[in-house]
Amino acid sequence: MKTVLSIIIAIIFLTLPISSPAATVSFSEEVANKMVVELEQGRLIQEELDATRAMNVELQKQVALLKEVNKLQEEQIQTLQRAIEQYQKLLKEQGIAYEAALKNAKPNFWSTMMEYAVCVGIGVLCGLLI
Question: Among residues of the chain, what percentage have pLDDT more than 90?
């Protein structure tokens, strides 16, 4: 019953013509000029806001790209650090091998003495023959 009554009341209000006189509002010229200026400023501010939002989106994309580049560069740094460590180990091992080769390349005392003895012996033989 309540719903039927509320539906009838709603239909009555919807079918009644709304008869409110149009209100006329007038502004002074100074106020009207100020309103026009403020409306224009509002439009300009909205355009600036839209441009700033677009720039913000672009900057966020750039930040994401720079973070990715930074990550790749950090990976490169780690790879290069490992390569440096390997080269340092290689240089150390080459230094040890060079020292060993140098030590083996130097004639020892007895081999030098044998060479001198042979040379002296050949000299003595040449001297005896002459």
Answer: 41
